[in-house]
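Notebook, bench 3.
Goal today: get a predicted structure for Prenyltransferase from Methanosarcina spelaei so we can plan the truncation constructs. The sequence was checked against the plasmid map this morning, with no discrepancies at the termini. Length recorded as 307 residues. Pasting the sequence as submitted so the record is complete.
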Amino acid sequence: MSFNVFFGSFERFLRYRRKNDPEIGEKNATLELLKSSILVAFSGALRIHIAFLLLQVHSSIFTCVAGGLVIYSVYTLDRALGSEEDIVNRKELSGSRKEIGFAASMITFVIGSYVLAKEGVIALAFLPLVTGLLYSKGIKIGKFALKLKGGLGVKNIIVGLTWGAFISGLAGSTCRSVLPIVLVFTFFGVKLFINSTIYDFKDVKGDTLAGLKTLPVSLGEQNTRNFLLGLHLLSHLILGIALINGIIAFEPLIVLYSFICGLICIKNYTKTDDMETTFHKLERTILVDGESTSIVGLKTIVSTFLV
């Protein structure tokens, strides 16, 4: 028997076991739940580092790591609580042990918020947590009910405002000037608004069934693409002017890479096709969630050669 035949048979056997053994399927789904937010948390921690660089403030590794833990906590909690659209959009999480995801979320939040409390910015730890709960579950006190989910582009606006404030707030907590913080907030707020909308394109089916008025669902593919492109150009134009005038740190590599990467993402991943190849999925993950990793890596390499 050739190696390819043996490997193919073994792979089919594993797929059969996963499909027909509920315990194995549950373990796989739970593991998927726990690891699904790792990349976005790591990317978020590096975004905080980039914000430190743009604000010309000494980067604190503890603040970056703590921020990443809070990001992991919020996203894992959201996926553990689940929502109607996740039945279609996140089939891989079906059957997962939600209580394990909830426990992991609480543990990482406690650790992250403790570190941020030592840094004097504990309030920022609760901003994304409270906002996330208001969005996904809402609150109801008597006749008063508040839930942020459902409006046109509301999710994307919340993502942009919340994480933009979180990132710029952590990095700018010791910054003496307000204008650079506002510029960094705008930069990351717009970027995360665009990134969340890009991911909405692959979730159109589930969002439509759940009645969510995301931008791709409401405006259509081309109109949403044009809107994102306009936002992207405007935010980088503002950042470029600020860089030239010395309002933020002179970091042309960060601005240029972000500009090019954003153009590629808006052009290639604002499509509502149901089928997405493994390669395109990996490419989208690297360019969208992995952008900050690439920026920090390139900056490190360039700095090494220039020294």
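The radius of gyration is 21 Å. The chain has a mean pLDDT of 81.
Flagging this for group meeting.
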